[in-house]
Write a structure and sequence with these properties.
Length: about 475
Amino acid sequence: MQEFFDLDTYLSLDPSQLADSVLHCPECGRDHNIPIKNVISGSGLLQLFPSLIKDISENITEVVGVVYDRQIEDKIKRRVIQPLHELGLSLVRVPLGQKGEILDASTAIGDEAAASLPDSVPLLISAGSGVISDLTKWIATQRKIPYILLGTAASMNAYTSITGSMSVGDVKTSKWLDPASAVLLDTDLLVSAPPQMTCAGIGDLLARNVANADWKLASLIRGVYFCSVPYQMMAPYQQSLLSGASALGSHDPRQMKNLADAILVSGYSMTVLNGETSPSSGAEHILSHFFDFQHHIFGLPKNLHGTQVGLASIITSAAYELLRELDITQLDIDEIEQRRLSEVAIKFDHRRVFGEHGVLFDKVVNQKRIPDVEFRKYIVGILNNWNRILDDISPYLLPSETIRRALEEAGGATKLVDIHRTEEEVIQALLYGSHYRPRYTILDLFWELGLFPDIVPEILKRAQV
């Protein structure tokens, strides 16, 4: 494993050079590890598989499993399985899901696939994007075998993450999983993906600013660990992304390589924290996960993860803009206390809106809630230090209009209708998202300051969604 001590040198490395490395961080004093041995982006990468497999283990002589979604079976046969056969690899197909149905990365599906995988399969190749990658990570971790991720779309940033976003029942949760032996983003495959998947990848990457602002906010208010290095790692890639959004929308091969590199480094930004997702997941991801919850519970339409995240990034950036314009130091502490809902009232409301699923929300609220006896002192601390807090989080934020413009240029979703949600359904996500996921974000702060629920319509108006 390569060792680095100098931050400037580390930040100058490309995704392939960052693989199998450790930074002894001068910012926070911790070690930032990337345990993935091989990470490559570019054209014609399928040719590398025989040598990669040999490097992983000299003893792999049996068939290799290829995990994919039945929805794109014809494409995988033509673009992945047949070329690998021609390279001399013996393959066993591991199709998941059903044609005509949206596949979910659930632990139930992953466990079933792991249990049915033949013992003769010593290594897995994931041929797909987000859901298939997460399921392959899960299956390989359960079976304790190595795996290679071959991305077929630039639709999300978790290829180089050591976590998987898995559904456990009706709840999406991050699971720490074994790292891939190799990650390959072949631009020949990426440019052939549906345009909406590329737009989803752009949306996932644009979450960076709100996510890091939320992470810094949680550090200042709740005392959680924070390091700016993951944010710095993505800086040059974001600038390229914003300036080349229109070319990405037309699947320009050169820009696709830039997008692939950005996706790989974005995944690293979580892996260097041992899988902690805070650098790439804040309030915007909470809204996206809540939209998924609405799909499971209320039957509302399901969208690509990054599509939801991109639109949610516009909304949450607008929320920050609105909060920064308010002089919250003038808020009445007595009124804030009076507006605060009791635990009993919150639980009653959860049952009213979500029925038996309300218990999921109760657990999260109990985990994050400041006890009543400590609440006044807690709020006074926020109000007294608010100007410093604003100064510290502001460098991480991006104007909501900048995010909107990039998504529009790429052809992505910028309106509620694009994700098949009404204003009322998005209001529900804003109000209850912080009760659904344990991460502290700006959504929690709005509740704590007594600004929710009244300010929500203003947030949506500012977001122009």
